[in-house]
Please model this.
Amino acid sequence: MTTAQYGAITVEPFGDSAVMVTIPHADQAIRRSGIVAFRERFLAHRPHGVLDVVSGLESLLIEFDPLRTALQHVEYAARLLAKWAPAPSDGPDGARAVRKFAIPVVFDDETGPDLASVADDMGLAPAEVVEAIAESSFTISLLGAAMAPMMDGLKVPRPVRRLAEPRTDVAPGAIMIAGTNAIIQPFPGPTGWRVVGRTPRTIVDISRPDPVSFGTGDIVRFVPVTRDEAAVLGAGFLLPLGESV
Amino acid sequence: MKTVALEITSTGWITTFQDLGRRDTERRGVPTGGAADQHSAAVANLLVGNPRGATLIENLGGELALVPDADVLLAVTGDASRVTVGGGPVESWSPLVVPAGHEVRIHGDLSRGTRTYLAVNGALTADTLLGSAAPDARMGFGQTVVRGSRVLLDTEFRGFRRRLFEAPLFRLPVPVPRFDAGPWVIDVVPSHGIDTIAGIREVIEEATYVVTTRSNHVGLRLDGPVLHPDTDTEIVSHGVPVGALQIPHADELIVLGRYRSLTAGYPIVGVASRASLSLLGQAGPGRELRFRWTDSESSLRRFARREAEVCALEHAATEAFGALGFTAPSKTLARDQMRMYSHLKSSSHFSHEEER
Model:
């Protein structure tokens, strides 16, 4: 792959030391997958003076040190990378290996208070929604607030709508869906997503040098388990398949 | 090197370990965070011969007090504070030698700013998350400094033979910000949301806004006039720079702080100048703010001037402390910067490789 499939990018200044990159394309799916590909590429060839990036659903905020580089340089580098840089996986170093996760999840009325309403929206039975989630293969597209893994790949008849009234307190480990995305709540907090289940595993552990074991590009499947099975599995730190503590 | 204990005899409303924030973690969903007033935090460290990003203590409201069990070199910056050592008034924004067993008391002036910073020569012992001692409430990383606890400090400071109330130790060129009594003027660079609301530029330019008590580390919520977009264009979740001016559905203006997360649905009409962010970090409830539109270039010129002042202090402090024979901050500073930017070095081969 020598050129990006998404073609041109839009680069807009955002304040005095950041730019916002978006992909002007009519198809939402291409805008979203394109920005993920662009981010990986940009981080693999990070230009001088770039401090950090923030992933949005369809955008990438690039933050730079304005005393070490200039907006024009960052914009030029971004455009050049969008056009010419090979994808990181094509490079000599390669991207880090994709890790696979099988995450045990309890799907019931208590852990998944929105399961029934999602099923209603889809014209399915709750068990069929669980089945659809379990059969979907998710790819982590970005790490959201507090390192929450945001995934794409939910296979349901139509995108899942968000809640009109957000929930104020969702337990850690909650599996939540919206659109064709899924996310796991690492810490107690509010959400407008539909809560469909809960994993007993610890997703983010701040006492570890690296609080998470997953990264963008990793593959996730949700494995339905009973409450008893979940209790046996326990709250251990989530690790990829083939690794144990 | 020796280990000194600082006995915490009083804490304010919120007293935490702090530093300049996390680096390169926003791409993994963790905001940079760190001292709300980055200028005061950096200067406090430089005044005691530390690298700018060393761990220090941030205090909001109330009174922070501690007693060291050996002589220490410390400095207090931030809002116009009343600082005493053993009951006698001493200067803020200046290096201070505090003899063993003497109590330092720091009282912020809440009618001006909100936060004081206390730096001590050496390295404070504090937990870190992703390389930084800055708290992150969202991830349950509180970093609270507890009254009655003993904070440990590794320091090479062996004391100067001098008395407490002699003239100031050094004549350092200290860039002390002004925390005026009247409205603070914040420079803002317009961003594209300004074009989605007709007349908002004029409204913001002419109004005076007041910081409300609904404000926190995520953002300042301001009372004052706003306008809303006519159309209901969907704005999907996206990242925003620190200092973004956001107009939510309610009639208020939000200035996002260093702990902001992704935002969706609300127009961003501008972003506060990098040179204004430290001042915003001192704005508390009741504070009046006025906004002045500026362009990127003027904004960065101001920021560069501010940075030059801090660099001048850095050089002067390096020389002064170097002459006194304890570890010059330049050495630790260089090490720190190498660590900070090492990830950039390994990936800054962009321009040459791509052109080949």
Q: What stands out?
A: Residues 28-44 of chain A form the longest helix (17 residues). The helical segments of chain A are 28-44, 71-84, 115-122, 126-135, 227-233. The domain at 10-90 of chain A is CATH 3.30.1360.40 (Gyrase A; domain 2).
